[in-house]
């Protein structure tokens, strides 16, 4: 069971960890590889963009999974 807030926070701190927390292994590995590349390749300018996008996607995926678990009335 993943919580959206926890997934977003984890992925904001270390992009990819929130996706791993959600069980999205390939997405997590993608962000773990891409983010350092953006930090280094752009001299730090686009690294923050990866942090925000990774956090937002981790949050939305956790919400989707949470909604699928709820019973449909």
Automatic annotation (TrEMBL):
Residue ranges crossing the lipid bilayer per the database entry: 28-58
Source superkingdom: Bacteria
Keyword terms: Membrane, Transmembrane, Transmembrane helix
Protein name (Swiss-Prot/TrEMBL): DUF5683 domain-containing protein
